[in-house]
Amino acid sequence: MTTTFVVEAMGAANAVVKWEKKSRHANKEVRSVNDSDTDGGNDSATDDRALLVSCEPDESEKLFAITEVTEMGRMVSIFFNGFGQSLFYIAMCLYLYGDLAIYATALPVSLRTVACTVPAPNVTQNESSAPCWYGVDSVNRINAYRIFLAGFVIILTPFTFFNVQKTKYLQIMTSLLRWMAFTTMIVFASMKLASGKVRTSVPVAEFSGLPSLVGSCVYAFMCHHSLPSLITPIQPKSSLYRIMALDFILILIFYALLGFTGLFAFDNLQSLYTLNFDVSETANIEFFHYFLQLFPVFTLCTSFPIIAITLRNNLRALFRRTDPPSTCDRLFFPLLAVIPPVIIAFTTDDVTFLVNITGSYAGAMIQYVVPATLVLCARKETIFTFGQFVPNVHSSPFRNRWWAYIVLFWAYVCIILVTANHIINKK
Fold it and tell me: What torsion, rounded to 10 degrees, do the Cα atoms 179, 184, 189, 193 define?
């Protein structure tokens, strides 16, 4: 539902941008013809703008066609006031900070799992005092984690000071690795179930898992900030919503297979699902064992610099730094983007906790609150600019404004329940 809200807002933003360009061009022509009649011509064009659009049937489709990439930040600047823009960038920055903290935690956790040679069948991630290597008592698991984290920071954070362009092949490679890893995990978990090793005592529901559920659901289906770049090149767009629906159904089926096979195949699930697949769980094939253990390393190493650069740019937008970056800006904003998540990663190696907090709060704002408020403001702006009877060809199937209010209410309920659960668990 919320993705259709974003697409509708994209259509409205394209219409507003095109109309502003058309109006500026018309004003220049009027001035060049008769400077003395400029004021009157502008008033007439302004008064009749809705009439002009409504009188030309094809004009509406051309105006609302999504032909120009309008990123979330640009749509927010068109439809939100200054306060709304600030709230959006705050939510986006918090979400990206959480993303970077999760990435900075998951990668060294994976490296530690592969590198540590001391078998610890009863040791969990949180038992940090357990030894990591034989004969090296001074380096326990948390120290090994921090060593890998330091190496990760030294190698990848310098990319934050630059711009990353032409990531097409990098993204294709990352997508292939993800599909390969997901398929491998489903196959090996299904093989374990087929061999009769089925977990029998599975609780129907646990209220304590609510933050993990909300946070994971947000992360599983979060794509809203990427929709403008994904959807704009698609041609034709007449079946866009059907394609999106099929896409989400496919994703849901894939996640269901991944989740339910893991739920019944393993007694104690690790916070990083890939860590459940030791050599014995991969049919004693070491390649798949190491591939799954190191899968977060392969993918997160490519994603971390891109997300850090995105956060850097959003921080500049939050502080209203629209001028070309000075030397101070080139140093300050990259450091501001990288230092907080690295500090968080040094203080905890609990990936589940970070997913709960980031997904339940900042993620809920980006996935639920921003699309709903964006489409409401976009509809108001298009009625004001083009009139009530000019249709948006990319209007959401959920046209009634109450659908947007239901999404806002759902976000409110999720945040309240998650917060209450955190308070109860602390007590």
Answer: 110
Please give the distance of CA 381 from its chain centroid, rounded to a whole number.
Answer: 26
Q: What is the 3-state secondary structure (H, E, C) of the chain?
A: CHHHHHHHHHHHHHHHHHHHHHHHHHHHHHHHHCHHHHHHHHHHHHHCHHHHHHHCHHHHHHHHCCCCCCCHHHHHHHHCCHHHHHHHHHHHHHHHHHHHHHHHHHHHHHHHHHHCCCCCCCCCCCCCCCEEECCEEEEEHHHHHHHHHHHHHHHHHHHHHCCCCCCHHHHHHHHHHHHHHHHHHHHHHHHHHHCCCCCCCCCCCCHHHHHHHHHHHHHHHCCHHHHHHHHCCCCCCCCHHHHHHHHHHHHHHHHHHHHHHHHHHCCCCCCCHHHHCCHHHHCCCHHHHHHHHCHHHHHHHHHHHHHHHHHHHHHHHHCCCCCCCCHHHHHHHHHHHHHHHHHHHHHCCCHHHHHHHHHHHHHHHHHHHHHHHHHHHHHHHHHHHHCCCCCCCCCCCCCCHHHHHHHHHHHHHHHHHHHHHHHHHHC
Report which of 240, 252, 297, 250 is spatially closest to residue 115, judged by C-alpha positions.
Answer: 297
For residue 29, name the pLDDT band (cuts at 50, 70, 90): low
pLDDT score at 86: 92
DSSP state of 361: I
List pLDDT tens digits, range 241-293.
Answer: 999 999 999 989 988 999 889 888 888 788 788 888 877 777 778 888 888 88
> Hey, is 310 helix, strand or coil?
helix
Take residue 373 and report the two structure tokens written for it.
Answer: 């408020």
CA–CA dist 335, 85 (Å, integer): 23
